[in-house]
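Obj.: predict assembly geometry.
Materials: sequence records (below).
Method: joint structure prediction, all chains together.
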Amino acid sequence: MKVLIVDDEKDIQTLFEQRFRKEIRIKLVELAFAFSGEEALRYLEQNDHEVVIILSDINMPVMSGLELLGHIKQKYSTPPPSVMMITAYGDAENFNAAKRLGADDFLTKPIDFNLLKEKFKL
Amino acid sequence: MKKYIAIIVILLVMPCLGVAQDAWLDSIKHALSVAGSDTSRVMALNGYCSYYKFKRPDSTMFYGAKALTLARQIKFPKGELEAMAYIVLTQSALGNQAKALQIILEAIKIAEKNHLIFEKAQLLYLQAIIHNQMKNYEKALNLCMESKNLLDSIHNITFSALVQTGIGDAFLKLNQPDSALYYCQLSYDYQLKETWVKYYSALQLGKIQEKMDHTDLALYLFRQSLSLSDEPNELFNSNLAIAQLYQKTGNLDSCIYYGQKSLLIAQKSKFIANIINANLFLSGIYEKTDIQKALQYSQIAIAYKDSLYDLANKTAQETFLGFDQQERQQEIEAANTQFQNRLRMNAFLGITFTLFVIAIFLFWNSRLKQKAKRNIEKAYDQLKSTQSQLIQSEKMASLGELTAGIAHEIQNPLNFVNNFSEVSSELLSEMKIELENNNKEEAIAIAEDVKQNLEKILHHGKRADGIVKGMLQHSRSSSGSIEPTDINKLADEYFRLAYHGLRAKDKSFNAMLKTDFDERMGTINAVAQDIGRVVLNLITNAFYAVEEKKKLQLEGYEPTVLVSTKRVDDRVLISVKDNGNGISPKVLDKIFQPFFTTKPTGQGTGLGLSLSYDIIKAHGGDLKVDSQEGEGAEFTISLPV
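Observations (raw structure tokens):
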């Protein structure tokens, strides 16, 4: 299962790799990282249909997570990857905007990795 | 002075003058002809008066008036008083006592004004003589006393002695022979060189003794006075006194002898009053024995009297008129002078008053000014305090804008701290298991990860710390100190804070953030928090501008904000450029004014750019704006290195 994580904070990569080290080791999960919305779209273009789940931060410069969400849901209609939104601001406005744009799930920072693993059905 | 005194004395004491008159007149004429100064002319004219005083009252009045006028012209008060004294004496001799008193009172005033004590004493004595003539003996006595006190105060013994004799005379007339005797005796006992004083006291003492019926003593004293007489008038008085005494004792032969002797002296000296007196006396003597002779003497006396009064009424009167006119003229002049003096006084008072008013006005004005100054200072202080409060609220307002950004900026590192701590703890548990299983390589790999995580925890902890410090610095009200400031770092920091701040408020906001930092910038000396505030303000404005334009939903519009730095020679430039709506030329020159804002009410203080401008000016720099309406704006801070 390939998961794309989008966040402008580069350290998020180290964190995820360590959290999912066991899963990665037994090849249960494959992690890819993009540090901006544009980068994520480029990755998706290059690795079409590989990614099953996208985890995106909302609060990013230039292209926000919500914009990215909109692009993905428009572009990749069949089969659409599951998109989970992560934000520091766990507010109703962002939640509603994400839902409207077709977000599959919604997470708030700090990320509860146990909950995330459950959602991944690992 | 001595001559002057002598003249006055002769004038006052002697009712008539006698021998050696022509020689005297010649000397006066000579004196007048050679008189160089006006002062000596006055004295010569007074000499004429003295010469003519009882022989020709008209001449006396004529020369007296002349002397008086000249003396007044040249302001010679002593000469003036002497002339007045002659006029007084002439007036009294002519029976015009009222006029005489009027003049003498005036003369006394002049003496007082000029502080001429001796002359005043003499005039008082002259006044006493006139009162004596008017039979007002008490007044005469008082005047003599006053005169004596003045003379004693200037230690003039001679005249004091003379006046004491006068006192004696007054007491005698008041029928107080004891007092009269006391004063005349005092006068008589003075050891004086001046025989005419002695003569007078002897004569008066004799009269007192006669009154007290001490006939022998009286006769002795009269003879003494006769022996002391060296002037015709003195000789006449002494002889007549002896004649009168003999009349009283009934010694008619001796009486007639001395009476005729005195008549001869009088006739020789041409002293009219004495001639009259002698004739009247002889007429009285013969009244009972030889009526024919008595009538003859009487007729002579009457004829002299008539001639005297004719003279007085005719020529003298004319002189009087002239004199009166002169007096009036002088009065008018005096009044004029007084008027001018009063005018001057009034002018002086007027000027003084005006100056006073001006002074008061100036004082009042200066007080008003001081008050106004105090008010202005007070208002200025209030303004300053209000301004600092405004600056503080602007700081707090911009801090409010930052708060959400700060929260986000802190939340992220905090998340990392928490997450890396948590995962590190898990990794250590795994490492323990690996070590128990002797899986050394795996344990080392885990240890590497934990070490890396700890570094990350430290990094994010410091990141949060820096943000909190920056926030505190931003809100601090006291002015910061000048320190080396990394402009690139500062600009980047505030760019991020501003962006996240705005994003926190408006979730849909987004913009292209571009930076172009000159690596040669280094550090400059500045108050970092102040420059940071300016940069933050410019960036916030830029974001606001692009957000406003974005609302127009133009096709293909990409909101972009560029923050760049550049080093040019000895200046650094910090530029904040946006592609928003720009600034219209209408408001371009107002944007740096305090309280000017284009934002809706309640959204902006209107102080941001104004304070920014002040801060940059305080750093010796410039804040400039370049804008094309509809195209965007670029603000450039220029600071000296």
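Conclusions so far: The domain at 2-119 of chain A is CATH 3.40.50.2300 (Rossmann fold).
To do: check interface contacts against the pulldown list.
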